[in-house]
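User: My instructor asked us to take a sequence, write out its structure as tokens, and then describe one feature of it. I'm not sure where to start. Here is the sequence I was given:
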Amino acid sequence: MKASERYYARVSEIMAEAFEKEADAVEAAAQAVAQANLEKRSVFAFGCNHAGLITLELFYRTGGMVTVNPVRAPGMMLELSPPTMTSEMERMPGYGKIIFDNMKAKPGDVLIIHSVSGRNSVTVDMAEAAREKGLCVIVVTNMNTTTAVTSRHPSGKKLYEFASILLDNHGDMGDASVELEGFPQKVASTSTVVGAALLNAVVARACEIILEAGQTPPVFMSGNLDGGDAHNKAVMRERADNIFYL
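Assistant: Let's start with the prediction itself. The structure tokens for your sequence are:
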């Protein structure tokens, strides 16, 4: 079997396992996101560097929630050169709290944080600060990896220990998933595709719950469809108090 076929098989296996074993957590996360929207509260999403790709997946896109706010800060999205600086920056104690303190988050809001290892200081600081302020913290992590590594946070704790709701992506330790004969390093990570699928499922279920409550989910329509721009402007205007990215 070619490496491409083995990757597809492994991703499919992990995806099936994650959706089966995380069903209750997906439902709990969807309920939290739906409730935040029903109560006109805000939803935030954050991840450092490649973990932040899931934030972009949820943010400002067709079928996504208008009310999901990306948390962006210097050095947290591989935008610096050399990019090795960003790896150092996500390990800096205190930076996550600085980022959180400059968010417009309030008690009762929801914060989604993604980190495969959950060991670095920025995400731990942010999750700790969010819990202290009374936010619901939805953590997406890889329990195979995070339980096998040491914390880099001064407290010795890891991200999952601050989760209100925990979603395990069930990936292989270290995230890469495919072995090549004669090559010691696995290739092809799975966290982005599986994490994105889990959180899109959360969004889909949250929208369903909002509809069941008799309200209209605040969802983007494709701007490339007729009527899309007008629809999106109307929804963003309606939920302006919960949008901080404009």
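For the description part of your assignment, you could build on this observation: Strands lie at 43-47, 68-70, 110-114, 136-141, 165-168, 176-180, 183-189. Try explaining in your own words what that tells you about the chain.
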